[in-house]
Predict the 3D structure of the following.
Amino acid sequence: MDKTELPDGWRKSTLPPQEPEIQWVSIEKLLDEYTIPVLAAAIEGLDVQIYNATGRRILATDGDESDWHSKAFAISHLAHRYSMLQDPGPDDYLFDERLEIEGSPLDLFGWPKDALPDLDSITPHLSSKIQPSLVQSSSASWIVQAQALAKEYIERNTKKDLHPSLNDTCEYVAKQLRTLKVYGAHQKPLGAGYIKRKALQGIWWKNRLAP
């Protein structure tokens, strides 16, 4: 028998069908734009979806916190994040670094972009948009500080014929910003991964040695 022929009853394998791509807007991503009370109200009152173990998007259930597919489970994680805002600790940055490595359960809760509800209309007891307070650093201001610290660190090491990597530089900047008590929009210490994505990687890093 020709080696290219298949035995009787067999058929050639075909590629599995691919799901159409969607733009997924997670609760975790929305934390950058909306307050926790607004998102908690949206989870409670709107048809928030979740990805289950088979990769299907289903409506979050009305189970208790032990049900990983429940609204209560998502709200319990929001409550934890809220408690960190009310009582920030010196090790909060470790939580952010853990999210960078492991991801957040809130990544699985959300909506397709074309089904995203009008979150601006939700006003549980305050404005839905985050209003920075005097003790908060605006995105622009902390980024400027982060880039200035990084440039000083790189120049100082270059004079010693040392060339710190992007990750090393981000770790240094994160420590310096914590010492200076420069926090992000949620009054939390900025993690090295977040600093890397928002302030140092890409064009800035490419031009880091420019005068």
Remarks:
- Residues 53 and 69 are 10 Å apart (CA to CA).
- The radius of gyration is 23 Å.
- The beta strands are 24-26, 49-51, 57-59, 109-112.
- Confidence is low (pLDDT under 50) at residues 126-138.
